[in-house]
Please model this.
Amino acid sequence: MANTQSMCTSFMSELMLGQHQLGTSTIVSRTSLTAPTTDTLKAALYLVSATYNASTTAYSATGEVSGTGYTAGGVTVTNATAPTSTNASATAGVAFFTPSGSLTYTTVTLATAFDTVLIYNSTQSNKAISVHTFGSQTITAGTFTLTMPSNTTTTALIRLATT
Amino acid sequence: MALVTTTKGDMDESLLEKREGTVDNDNEATTWVEYWDGEELVHRSAHVTLKKMPVFGGGETASIG
Model:
């Protein structure tokens, strides 16, 4: 046997679960210190002309779509499946998370082209989680549905990995 | 009689021209449907299935010594 230097894969999923606090931080109370409640995630749509990327830190209405039937801030993400992690080797692993339901914007008119969804934590001061892009769309008196990928180590919506 | 939600209220599908399309690539599988009343687009819906998101990270631990 030999030891192998690596980040522990479980640590990454535990980060997603808020189980480590490596520095002082200010958060919105999750009711209990030992059995905290799950935060509410939301999904907002953004115009093709917007600039959302890795430097995004929080939800903003700037560049967000607007139109009949769409509420600023987007829709609540169905979040019934907790993050998990899997080791691929002694040095590599993946922590992953996928919302458990599709994102549906029902009977909306979004006349200006959009191509991005921002997943953010509405419980924790709207802090940004991830930005996902797709082909440009408009919606006219219709429904826009964003179906999540399979929740696996290779396809999950949010994956943290060591290599 | 199938009704379609449109910019003009619910309309009988048979009175409208239906156009459909798909996009399928490494990132997404998308289907869309449009209904046209003459030259006017009165309904458009889209369904995007995200396929594979890029990995965030690729982290390493620092060596000691």
In short: The first helix of chain A runs from residue 9 to 16. The mean pLDDT of chain A is 91. Chain A touches chain B at residues 5-7, 12, 94, 107, 109, 130, 132-135, 137-149, 154-163 (CB under 8 Å). The beta strands of chain A are 41-47, 75-76, 84-87, 93-97, 103-121, 127-147, 158-162.
